[in-house]
Amino acid sequence: MDREWGSKPGSGGAASAQNEAIDRRERLRRLALETIDLAKDPYFMRNHLGSYECKLCLTLHNNEGNYLAHTQGKRHQTNLAKRAAREAKDAPALPQPNKRKVNIRKTVKIGRPGYRVTKQFDPETKQRSLLFQIEYPEIEDNTKPRHRFMSSYEQRIEANDKRFQYLLFAAEPYEIISFKVPSTEIDKSTPKFFSHWDPDSKMFTLQLYFKLKPPEVNKPQSVAAANGTLPSQPPPPPPLQGLAAGSRPPPPPLPASLPPPPPMGNGPRPMPPGGAPPAPPPPPGGSGAMANFTPGNQVGRPPMLPPQGFPGQQMQGQVMRPPPPPPNMGQ
């Protein structure tokens, strides 16, 4: 029995061109959903009806997958190309900066040059200096070595340290060498800072002087320290006569007259110079039962207790009053 479709039994017929196109668009839609972020698409918009629109092509789409399939189509891609061409045409032509193109020479390095460093000290100016002598026996013809100073923050080989700087020497075809020197200001006056290239001996010489640090103004220096001598200490007192070894000397005697202690805030008043306590004030005078009263020993009356509180100090807010007279007084 001849089959109309050239496929195995039960496997279905061959897909038509329409079915292949549908399957291709579905695969593109799934791939676009995984790779494309619709939130960053400037032409993607959701309207009030719940459907999606393409603001570039003015088309409506039922779901996000349909919109993504549209973005992969010919119509959307053509409109994108037209929009880019129109924006490039309308944009003003800005002058491009003239960038200097530097051709990097590619030479084979033959190694590091030989060098000699000499430390020097000037006794007259008290300045320290360094003398560098670099040998370039195989330097290229008609070239001279170069040098420069580099800050510690420019290099990437060692940790940054503001106390030091680097002095670099370069000459083709040798490798660049550097020396780590103190980060002190360099005296670049003519007789002290100089460089010289000797083409006969193939030696490059450089000498530099460091400036002296200004003295610290905030820390004054004593005369004895400036002269290099320490202040002499007073000699210890001589030992007392008649004391056994290891015993303490007697305390010094107290002075004859001591100043009076300061008055206390709520304490008793100081005693007068005579030593006797002051007399109590007399009772107020007037006419009445207390006019002829004379204080004395009262018979049959218990003695009055002193006020409660600290000795010699009365309670605040209370006033001492004389005791009341007996009931038969003045009759």
Short précis:
The chain is α+β, with helices and mostly antiparallel strands and 331 residues long. It is built from 4 helices and 11 strands. The chain has helices at 17-35, 64-71, 74-90, 223-227; strands at residues 44-46, 52-54, 59-61, 114-122, 127-135, 146-151, 164-170, 177-182, 186-187, 194-198, 203-210.
Describe the structure.
- The chain has 331 residues and is of the alpha+beta class.
- The chain has four helices and eleven strands, in the order αβββααββββββββα.
- Strands 4, 5, 9, 10 and 11 form a five-stranded antiparallel β-sheet that branches. Strands 1-2-3 form a three-stranded antiparallel β-sheet.
- Strand 1 and strand 2 form a beta hairpin.
- The mean pLDDT is 76.
**Which sheet architecture does the biggest sheet show?**
5 strands, antiparallel
Sheet-strand content, in percent, reads 15-25%
Q: Treating each run of at least 4 consecutive H or I residues as one helix, how many helices?
A: 4
Oligomer: single chain
Shape: flat
- What is the average per-residue confidence, as pLDDT, rounded to a whole number? 76
Structural class: alpha+beta
Give me the strand/helix succession.
HEEEHHEEEEEEEEH
Fraction of helical residues: 10-25%
Question: Topology, pairings included?
Answer:
Elements: H1 17-35, E1 44-46, E2 52-54, E3 59-61, H2 64-71, H3 74-90, E4 114-122, E5 127-135, E6 146-151, E7 164-170, E8 177-182, E9 186-187, E10 194-198, E11 203-210, H4 223-227
Helix pairs in contact: 1-2
